[in-house]
Amino acid sequence: MKKSYVYFLTNKNKTVVYIGVTSNLVKRVYQHKTKQFKGFTSKYNCDILVYYEEFSDINEAILREKQLKAGNRKRKEDLINSMNPEWNDLSEGWLFYFDQPSLRGKYD
Prior knowledge:
The chain is α+β, with helices and mostly antiparallel strands. It is built from six helices and three strands. The protein is globular, with a radius of gyration of 14 Å. Belongs to the UPF0213 family. It comes from Algibacter agarivorans. This is GIY-YIG nuclease family protein.
């Protein structure tokens, strides 16, 4: 089965929390960081990965995303703080893979 992920992004001031779901976390974060799609995350500069959960089923990930989106800001902050209290970018160094032609296909 293909893994799926629910993830939180924030901006440099940590004023916005975006929640998304994907089956390819590395590629999706790269897309956010390079602003490949116009939308919420590019408008509010959400490109710092601060939290994620892994699932073995995309349907479970989608249900979890809906549950998390229904929660308030405090619950989201509590989840982030439980895994990443400093709100560090968990994707630090991931862009290296997309800068290496020999590695690109591995994460597409």
